[in-house]
C-alpha cells in the first residue's frame, strides 16, 4: 500500500449545510481526487480535528479496504 500525496489540485474541503451534529465529516474519492466534507454547525476546533482525521483516511488509502469499520478503528488508534 503506497502513501497518497495531497495537493491543492487533488483535494478540496467543503462545508455541507444540513448535516446532523453527529456527522462531523467524511471524505469522498473519485479517480484520485478527494473531497473532505465538514459540518458547518460544529466548532472550528472540531472541524480541524475532523479534517485531520479524514486526511489520515486519504493518506492510508482506506478507500480500498474491505471493512470501513476496521479502517475507522485503525485511524482512531483503537
SSE layout and pairing:
Elements: E1 11-15, E2 25-30, E3 33-38, H1 44-59, H2 68-76
Parallel strand pairs: 1-3
Antiparallel strand pairs: 2-3
Please provide a written account of the structure.
The protein has 78 residues and is of the alpha+beta class. The chain has one domain (11-76). The chain contains 2 helices and 3 strands, in the order E-E-E-H-H. It has helices at residues 44-59, 68-76; strands at 11-15, 25-30, 33-38. Strands 1-3-2 form a 3-stranded mixed β-sheet, with helices on one face. Strand 2 and strand 3 form a beta hairpin. The longest helix has 16 residues, at 44-59. It is globular. The mean pLDDT is 86.
Number of strands: 3
Provide the number of structural domains: 1
User: How would a textbook summarize the main sheet?
Assistant: 3 strands, mixed
Q: What percent of residues are in strands?
A: 15-25%
**Class of secondary structure makeup:** alpha+beta
Helix content: 25-40%
Give the helix tally: 2
Q: Topology as H/E string? A: EEEHH
Rg calculated over all Cα atoms: 12 Å
Strands in their spatial order, largest beta sheet? 1-3-2
Q: How would you sum up the global shape?
A: globular
Q: Low-confidence spans: pLDDT under 50, at least 5 residues?
A: none
Kindly report how far apart the N and C termini lie: 21 Å
If you average the pLDDT, what whole number results? Answer: 86
Can you describe this structure in just a few lines?
By secondary structure, the protein is α+β, with helices and mostly antiparallel strands.
Amino acid at each position: 500500500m503506497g502513501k497518497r500525496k495531497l495537493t491543492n489540485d487533488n483535494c478540496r474541503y467543503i462545508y455541507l449545510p444540513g448535516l446532523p451534529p453527529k456527522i462531523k465529516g467524511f471524505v469522498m474519492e473519485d479517480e484520485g481526487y478527494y473531497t473532505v466534507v465538514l459540518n458547518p454547525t460544529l466548532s472550528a476546533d472540531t472541524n480541524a480535528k475532523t479534517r485531520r482525521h479524514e486526511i489520515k483516511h486519504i493518506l492510508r488509502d482506506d478507500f480500498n479496504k474491505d471493512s470501513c469499520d476496521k479502517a475507522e478503528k485503525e485511524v482512531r488508534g483503537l
